[in-house]
Design goal:
By secondary structure, this protein is an alpha/beta fold. It contains eight helices and four strands. It comes from Nitrosospira briensis.
């Protein structure tokens, strides 16, 4: 059990998320997702969670494992072409995870997703949360454009573009 991790999670709450991602940042992220999805039929979801609940924290649940749970809870896997992508940020751990559904994961390897995560984490360390997320969305959108290019009609959207705060 990592005592410093427990303390970080206990003292990172919803206010930290709202401070880092005020309404203006959430609106900019939503716009970036919408723009990224215009030329492809992929779906991007951004979810941020301040900290783990007590039981997962005491069980030392990794951010990746929690991201997979969130992927399922938000039904990111439930797209027609299996090309949903979740960007999950666990704020207390400063950890970004990308979970891609099988349609896009079969075409884009883990190394590419990890590179996007590292790029975002670098921006976050510099206090650039909004731009870090938007850069990550752009990079994911490039992959979706490459493999799932299509002209999307207005109003066609399988998953909401609004960022999710857990």
């Amino acid at each position: 059990m990592n005592f410093s991790r427990i303390l970080r999670h206990l003292f990172t709450g919803p206010r930290a998320v709202r401070r880092i991602f005020p309404d203006t940042a959430l609106a900019a992220i939503e716009k970036a997702i919408r723009q990224s999805e215009i030329s492809n039929d992929g779906e991007i979801v951004f979810a941020v969670e301040a900290a783990l609940d007590t039981l997962p924290l005491m069980a030392d649940q990794p951010a990746r494992e929690r991201a997979i749970e969130v992927f399922s809870q938000l039904r990111v896997w439930d797209t027609e072409h299996n090309n949903g992508v979740l960007i999950y940020l666990l704020l207390a751990d400063h950890d970004v995870e990308i979970i891609a559904d099988r349609g896009i994961a079969s075409r884009v390897g883990n190394e590419a997703w990890e590179a996007i995560c590292r790029q975002m984490e670098t921006a976050f360390r510099e206090g650039q949360f909004e731009s870090g997320v938007i850069t990550g969305i752009g990079a994911i959108g490039t992959h979706l454009q490459e493999y799932f290019a299509t002209e999307r009609k207005a109003g066609e959207n399988e998953l909401p573009d609004r960022p999710v705060i857990l």
